[in-house]
Fold:
Amino acid sequence: GVSRLKGKHRTEYADIKDEPVIEFIRRQGCDTAVCGHIHRPQERRYMLRGRDVRMLVLGDWKEDGAVIARATASEPLTLMQLTFDGIEPWRHEVPSFRIERIDDGE
Structure:
């Protein structure tokens, strides 16, 4: 698919389908997945087998400077913003999605 279509001054963005994300996280056994090319910074949280897992989505670096960083190895990854002064906490509202999923099919 095309993540962003340009034409006649209009921009459309791809949307995220939660099922493939949940399946990827389940197969990899990770707690956090990182996604790019969606162009809308966001965080999605899922409940998978009693574990709180999530996906962080990068934005369009040219427009919003969204990056993912953490201060120390023991801290969780966080959506941050790259500015001329360095990396700062994200200053804009980030859509957050929470999907409760008790049964993941296994």
